[in-house]
Amino acid sequence: xxxxxxxxxxxxxxxxxxxxxxxxxxxxxxxxxxxxxxxxxxxxxxxxxxxxxxxxxxxxxxxxxxxxxxxxxxxxxxxxxxxxxxxxxxxxxxxxxxxxxxxxxxxxxxxxxxxxxxxxxxxxxxxxxxxxxxxxxxxxxxxxxxxxxxxxxxxxxxxxxxxxxxxxxxxxxxxxxxxxxxxxxxxxxxxxxxxxxxxxxxxxxxxxxxxxxxxxxxxxxxxxxxxxxxxxxxxxxxxxxxxxxxxxxxxxxxxxxxxxxxxxxxxxxxxxxxxxxxxxxxxxxxxxxxxxxxxxxxxxxxxxxxxxxxxxxxxxxxxxxxxxxxxxxxxxxxxxxxxxxxxxxxxxxxxxxxxxxxxxxxxxxxxxxxxxxxxxxxxxxxxxxxxxxxxxxxxxxxxxxxxxxxxxxxxxxxxxxxxxxxxxxxxxxxxxxxxxxxxxxxxxxxxxxxxxxxxxxxxxxxxxxxxxxxxxxxxxxxxxxxxxxxxxxxxxxxxxxxxxxxxxxxxxxxxxxxxxxxxxxxxxxxxxxxxxxxxxxxxxxxxxxxxxxxxxxxxxxxxxxxxxxxxxxxxxxxxxxxxxxxxxxxxxxxxxxxxxxxxxxxxxxxxxxxxxxxxxxxxxxxxxxxxxxxxxxxxxxxxxxxxxxxxxxxxxxxxxxxxxxxxxxxxxxxxxxxxxxxxxxxxxxxxxxxxxxxxxxxxxxxxxxxxxxxxxxxxxx
Length: 717
Description:
About 5% of the residues lie in helices and about 55% in strands.
């Protein structure tokens, strides 16, 4: 019995003797105590929480090398490995977690949208519910500051740059022909369906080193990774039909969409100045397949085909019977991307996109066939070292083959070129604190056609001035090869380039956003030629130059008025260029000094309806009047358009949608065409160029068939 008692006393004595005390104090970076922080030894149940004074103390029987963990909301987790005897009376300072919602974001020149964006300036839903946008993502983006209203074109013109200076990417892969082709004074539309995307990043300047070949802007579209449910969608419209179906399986899903558009009824209801031999007719289809692997890898394959066909005779002051223009276009686009998370906080994103575009054009007596085959291959890696330091790098290769056959009654020739480009980039995000962050990157590009290598540094800096406001600065150099219209005739060019300087202020609080951004762009090595149009016989050079400077202001409010949201934007633009066949530096005819938009949406519960209005304004654009002399010195009248839409929720899955563009039927002027010769009074006669149609009226019925009967179709629309 004595022996047993002796052994028990000895055991408890040894156990008590072997226990260690872990103690200390936890503070923030300013030395203030943190209450409620979790303190424990990794892999054990030994631990405690800090007191009001930030103090902690607990006993442990663990010995030797151990890892002490300290964590608290809004702070980075602290981890240190050492001998247990070194964890006594320690002082631990926790760093602010720069990934919290109140932390700084690097956003100069960029509008983010989507579920994961900290600041939502424009949601994907806005694309199809904005009056006047007509379901086109470009139409909705034109309500944001930095864009210019070029109604007769329909593409994105950003901060003094023409439409060719904006590039569009889907899941990081280039879309080579994002717009449907059209005729003069008839706006083109984006080929991509807005229902495919969950997030949008619209950068009006100073964008990431990951993207190149764009002097003014990049539009990044992120497709839906996994559909919410199986469903069938049917749409019946005044101008066509649409049908879609989504199927889901355990690890994969497939979405199919088809559409048919015929503008014959619309063109009869609203005739224009054109003589239509064949109204605009288009048919298209899209397919998206997604597969999720066991290791969190995600494969997306997107394919789209579209065909556009029309024929018309357009008025021309110098041709009595007008000019005949016909177009048959076929476009195939395939985009495949793969993303995966690797070990030790690495991730990979890779993909390939391919486009085949064929256009058969009838222009007066000429027959033109253009064929463009393009591909984009890309691989990128990201390393998450900590919440304060992230690294992104990769490489990509662009391949373009363009051929054109031109023939008329007296001439026939073929033109072609291969424009292949290799690029690589590296970029890092550094968060010094919750208030200060920077993004530093550099991009290198080598053009096989131009035999030229260019290096593009990029830098952004952001400082959080208060709980709801921050300032940002951005600088970058950007290069872009001349467009196909020049390269098919000549390749002795230097890459066009521009330098961006941006200063941004942003305020975000309670569903309200205010942004003000000033910028300056300096252009160099722009293409010049010595003929009225780019021709095979033109003399070309890279001696062009220019600048663009301005101020963009944006305000969005989803809070002040119940069931109502609205946003306002204003842009001031001062720009001049000496390029193309310009005899002197002048403001281009596509640039308006003032652009403004107002968008209002209101949900009326008693009517189960959403009513929307939008108003677009642009000051008059410059043109040349040969009767007065000077080059691009006159200004046309300003552009004004009031648009309205109405959506009625028949049931949770059925909706009736109506939209009217230019409700007041304002006679907007896109410019003037002057006669080549003076009349008997020695005056050059002119013809006013107005939109192909002053008003567009659209009615649609949308029906979603799914297992979820509570699904609100208005949320999808």
